[in-house]
What we know:
The protein is mainly α and 193 residues long. Helices cover 77% and strands 0% of the residues. It contains nine helices and no strands. α1 packs antiparallel against α5 and α2 (24-52) packs antiparallel against α3 (59-91). The chain starts with a helix and ends with a helix.
Amino acid sequence: MNWLDLGLLAFVVAVGIGGLGAGFVKGAANLVGLILGFVLGSALFPTLTPLFLRWTSELPVASLFAFTVVALAAVFLLDVIGSVAARIVALLRLQPIDRPLGVLPATLSAVLIAGVTLALLNGFALIERQRSESRLSSWFLQVSAPIVHLLPPPWNGQPAKLPPSPIPAPDAPALALRRDIASVRDVFRAAFY
């Protein structure tokens, strides 16, 4: 076992212990939110990537940002739903059953998150060396392979290409006109203020 195996085990154990406090209902909602977030992120990132290309010129980074925003929104929404459901479970006095079972979805979520993280770090020399010596990383990657496949290219192993966007690209003459209007406005402000 190397430090990568120890880190993966520590992460899974810590999240599993946290599942004791959250309970099965909230943990299951978080797990469903994670999976739904990946599915929705995979479906919607081609539409949102052009919006993020305004802030970064790197297509892989913009597609990963678009994917992450959608996935985190789904996780947050289902976390809120899970919290409400956990309160209902508490009102029904089912916590003695709910709390111990919370380890199961929390541990599965941790395994999926660890596998996706390993896939995203693919290509870094330090991680590659440790992964080749690791006993657990290949198992984490196998378990999370269906989720990793939903990541945007090149993070899922496919070449990156700009998807067709329903959002029109800014028109060059319109941008030039906006700059001209802004410069005229600045001249008037300087003259009269």
